[in-house]
Design goal:
The structure holds two protein chains of two kinds.
Chain A (H helix, E strand, L loop, with lengths): L2 H32 L6 H19 L2 H22 L9 H23 L15 E3 L5 E3 H23 L1 H11 L1 H6 L4 H23 L9 H16 L4 H21 L4 H15 L11
Antiparallel strand pairs in A: 1-2
Helix pairs in contact in A: 1-5, 1-8, 1-9, 1-10, 2-3, 2-4, 2-8, 2-9, 3-8, 5-6, 6-8, 9-10, 10-11
Chain B lengths: L2 H26 L13 E7 L6 H17 L3 E2 L2 E9 L4 H12 L6 E3 L4 H14 L2 E4 L16 E3 L4 H14 L4 E8 L1 H16 L3 E9 L6 H10 L3 E5 L2 H13 L8 E4 L7 H4 L7 E4 L8 H14 L5 H19 L7 H9 L3 E3 L2 E5 L5 E11 L2 E13 L9
Parallel strand pairs in B: 1-3, 1-4, 4-5, 5-6, 7-8, 7-9, 9-10, 10-11
Antiparallel strand pairs in B: 2-3, 11-14, 12-13, 13-14, 14-15
Classes of the chains: A mainly alpha, B alpha/beta.
């Protein structure tokens, strides 16, 4: 493999990791801070992609779809938290798994009713639809580069909110010691609601961003859900920075696994996960005492 | 409570219900079913994916089958047809139970299904054990009309081997020497790529690399980069559904379609062409159908299908339609008497159907003998260029009809 091809493959890995991070960061927030296992995370990823398709079709603008899709997902998240998810806090994981699995079925059925069973494509915004010539016969879509940049910015925003704002402080306090935070008079319930909604919105955002380079199809969330859990467990549950590291690691493993070890590439990311968990049972950036 | 007092009544009751159960089982088993009055409707069990990734395919097969029955006034061979429907969800793990339910509890005389090969193979097993008449309207697993073939099992679609074998010669004849193949790593992928490679290398071509992605993963970027580096004369691929759309779009987005022409199994551009848009332009594939076949049977079929469903018919609808036509031929031969099985199966095996896809007959393993068309994506349709190979007959390797 020559140096340019290696560079392109590296770019592929980073771009794949960037999208994985976006989706997994939502999962790790909800999982780490609310202690809720949300199996429906992948379903919201799918819903985001379908919203991107539908809003782009209606308005002709991908940017509107991006904003609108995230907004719809955020509102849906707030409603779901208010009606269902708040009943789950402190319950055992079985109850959470049952509810969120039920949500998958409901969301799938809603998707069926609203958008049907067809496979759809979404056009990227015109100013991002070109491509850059990398080698004599390979060009790289600008939109894929834009995803990298966008995900990087999203990551910075998430880190800023968690590390530098009041709501981030409450979130951190809550994930450290929920009871103590509550004793100190912090309105924890409202924060929970926003964290859950933000988690859902991040899943949808991932789906919206991937829609133009992927396709929009039923069941697209299933694979993403499993990968997101791998990333979350790998990086350390509840750690956004861990999700970033985990996502990058999975992106690299998957890309170079396909190139160098095609026959075992499907299990390679799980081998990596097992190896990392043997070395650090709570994940790369997880708290080891937990 | 003593063990003795507890045991006695239960044992007696269990004996009774056990006997009754066994009697019911014998009565319902198709092997021993008493002669059904000829005017009772024949029960057709539709075991298809009505939800999930293949839901649309399942619906079209169902619509196609019912269209034919409606055209015959709700009767096949003079016999009323009743339907019972099971959603197989394309889940192989539930397939045996679903099939047993159709054959056992629902007492289906004939089962039609399905799309997913893994599910179909489980159905084939049950059909072999219970001797239920099975018509496969899509699944292309070579084994179903290969080692697992049986007199009571018919296929109205294709074998994986059959659909891509002709492309090997087409591409070699076009002067293509070096080809990279790419597919999902699962049975259908291996069979389609294998048949192509068999014919391509026989005609002097060379497979430079055989790339695979785990099923049903859709992240192709790493392999597309690899194709650019290998610089073959052409790429031959098999993907279906969402994966096919994404692969074709990724391939075009990487600019490879300008220098390395993309060829594929027909499913690469069937039912997916609208979502693929411009990216699919110029892709050449082989299949037993094309969107612009202008034989009278196809024109009439498309018109009737549109009138019934409001949708444009496709190959899946044709496969369902021909399934009903095949059953019609069998039932007509015996005057609707389903118990004259051997005669009925012989008539079905010898059937010559004027299908919308072109002339359709069956080989000794009950797999279709049919034309395979070379198509190119033009004007957002799979338009026929030529007949890649006429009357393609699957070799039915490993089939011992008993």
């Amino acid at each position: 493999m020559d140096l340019i091809t290696l560079g392109v493959q590296l770019l592929n890995a980073v771009q794949y990791g960037a999208v994985l991070f976006l989706v997994a960061s939502g999962l790790t927030l909800v999982f780490g801070i609310l202690g809720v296992i949300n199996l429906a995370h992948g379903a919201f990823y799918m819903l985001g992609a379908y919203l991107a398709y539908w809003i782009t079709l209606m308005t002709g603008s991908f940017v509107v779809a991006l904003l609108g899709g995230v907004l719809v997902a955020f509102i849906a998240g707030i409603l779901l938290e208010t009606v269902f998810v708040r009943l789950l806090y402190g319950r055992d994981h079985l109850a959470q798994v049952l509810l969120s699995f039920g949500l998958i079925l409901v969301i799938d059925e809603i998707r069926q009713l609203l958008f049907g069973k067809d496979v759809h494509a979404v056009a990227p915004p015109a100013w991002l639809s070109g491509s850059i010539q990398l080698t004599d016969n390979l060009s790289y879509p600008v939109y894929r580069l834009a995803i990298c940049v966008f995900c990087l910015m999203a990551a910075l925003v998430i880190f800023f909110v968690i590390a530098r704002t009041k709501i981030g402080m409450i979130v951190r306090a809550g994930s450290e010691n929920r009871e103590m935070a509550r004793v100190l008079g912090i309105k924890f319930d409202r924060v929970n609601r926003y964290v859950f909604a933000a988690g859902i919105a991040l899943a949808a955002l991932g789906g919206i961003l991937i829609a133009p380079i992927s396709t929009v199809f039923p069941g697209m969330g299933d694979g993403m859900l499993i990968l997101s859990f791998v990333v979350v467990v790998l990086g350390g549950i509840g750690s956004v920075a861990g999700a970033a590291v985990g996502a990058l690691l999975i992106g690299l493993t998957d890309t170079f696994g396909k190139v160098f070890f095609p026959s075992v590439s499907s299990i390679l990311i799980y081998v990596v996960m097992a190896a990392v968990l043997l070395w650090r049972p709570s994940g790369i950036l997880g708290r080891q005492d937990a | 409570m003593t063990t003795k007092g507890f045991l006695r009544p239960v044992t007696r009751r269990a004996m009774l219900s056990g006997t009754a159960g066994a009697a019911t089982f014998i009565a319902t088993s198709p092997l021993h079913s008493p002669a059904i009055a000829q005017n009772a409707p024949l029960k057709v069990g539709m075991m298809l994916p009505y939800t999930g990734t293949y839901a649309k395919l399942g619906q079209f097969i169902d619509d196609g089958f019912r269209l034919y029955v409606e055209q015959k006034g709700g009767k096949l061979g003079g016999r009323d047809i009743a339907f019972v429907q099971v959603d197989d969800e394309s889940k192989p793990e539930a397939a045996t139970d679903n099939m047993n339910r159709l054959v056992g509890r629902e007492k289906a005389d004939v089962v039609v299904g399905t799309v997913h090969s893994g599910v179909a193979m489980a159905m084939v097993k049950v059909a072999r054990d219970t001797k239920t008449l099975l018509i496969i309207p899509n699944a292309g697993a070579n084994d179903a009309t290969g080692p697992a073939c049986a007199p009571n099992i018919f296929r109205t679609s294709f074998s994986n081997w059959q659909s891509t074998y002709p492309m090997g010669k087409v591409m070699a004849d076009a002067g293509i020497k070096n080809v990279v193949t790419i597919t999902w790593r699962y049975t259908a992928g291996a069979e389609m790529i294998g048949a192509f490679a068999e014919n391509f290398t026989k005609n002097g071509g060379k497979i430079v690399a055989d790339l695979t992605v785990p099923f049903p993963e859709v992240e192709f970027q790493a392999l597309i980069t690899q194709i650019a580096q290998l610089k073959p004369d052409a790429v031959f691929s098999f993907f279906a559904g969402g994966g096919a759309v994404k692969f074709v779009k990724d391939y075009a987005a990487a600019g490879l379609n300008k220098t390395i022409p993309l060829y594929g199994a027909g499913f690469l551009t069937d039912g997916t062409i609208e979502a693929q848009g411009e990216a699919a332009k110029g892709i050449r594939t082989t299949l037993h159908y094309a969107d612009n076949l202008d034989n009278p049977a196809n024109l009439a079929f498309l018109k009737a299908f549109k009138a019934k469903t409001g949708k444009d018919g496709d190959i899946y609808a044709v496969q369902g339609y021909d399934g009903a036509a095949l059953l019609d031929i069998g039932l007509t031969a015996v005057g609707g008497d389903f118990n004259a099985r051997d005669k009925m199966i012989a008539a079905m095996g010898a059937a010559k159907i004027n299908s919308p896809r072109g002339p359709l007959s069956f080989n000794k393993a009950h797999n279709p003998i049919q034309n395979i068309y070379l198509r190119e994506v033009r004007n957002g349709r799979n338009e026929m260029i030529s007949i890649a190979q006429a009357d393609v007959d699957d070799p039915a390797r490993g089939c011992k009809m008993t």
